[in-house]
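User: Sequence recovery, please. Input:
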């Protein structure tokens, strides 16, 4: 398989590259796809916040906005969705999927301290509960622990998407599309597949492999 990671350079996505190498998937890093037939799936990585104008709001807590990155990732998302090729989003990528399908964001969740990183390079951790019958449940079961490094959360859910995982304090932790091979998770499996089961966190390789190979 060859995966397109939607970013500019490897400096922004080293953990994702390491994870795909571990899984045995080839990849390119770019905000453009000259020949879509070259790629089997799109990986939307984590990063800073999406410009709230994308969901018809003013900036009210969003930080690190990069309109060029937004534009490149949304264009790639559109190409892969129209081609019905797999798209998997992680953290910001999950949020971008929601916004692409018409959803909106909580620009700074009230429980951010429980979800944002503890320190630079040190993720938070918390438990999540999957929705019965979801693909996430099939991978990990009903109740499990994930790592966490975000301060926003999905608010209105985009058309065709369903929430399949919740944190104990009510934050959306995963989305799956009802008919397209599109899904996203709010945590960072690209980090946990590099040290599976450390501190009881689930092995991220399972979810990355599953949704990129749909």
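Assistant: Recovered sequence (214 residues):
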């Amino acid at each position: 398989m060859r995966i397109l990671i939607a970013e500019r350079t490897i400096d922004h996505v080293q953990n994702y590259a390491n994870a795909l190498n571990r899984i045995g998937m080839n990849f390119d890093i770019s905000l453009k796809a000259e020949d879509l037939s070259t790629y089997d799936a799109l990986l939307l990585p984590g990063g800073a916040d999406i410009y709230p104008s994308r969901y018809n709001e003013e900036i009210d807590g969003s930080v690190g906005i990069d309109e060029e990155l937004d534009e490149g990732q949304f264009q790639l998302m559109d190409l892969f969705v129209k081609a019905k090729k797999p798209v998997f989003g992680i953290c910001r990528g999950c949020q971008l999927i929601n916004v692409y399908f018409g959803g909106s964001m909580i620009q700074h969740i009230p429980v951010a301290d429980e979800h944002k990183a503890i320190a630079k390079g040190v993720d938070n951790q918390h438990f999540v509960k999957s929705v019965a019958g979801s693909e996430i449940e099939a991978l990990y079961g009903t109740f499990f622990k994930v790592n966490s490094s975000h301060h926003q959360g999905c608010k209105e859910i985009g058309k065709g998407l369903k929430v399949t995982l919740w944190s104990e304090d009510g934050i959306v932790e995963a989305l799956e599309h009802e008919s397209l091979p599109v899904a996203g998770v709010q945590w960072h499996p690209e980090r946990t597949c590099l040290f599976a089961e450390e501190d009881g966190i689930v092995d991220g390789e399972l979810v990355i492999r599953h949704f990129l190979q749909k």
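Helices lie at 14-23, 67-82, 92-100, 135-140, 189-192, 205-212.
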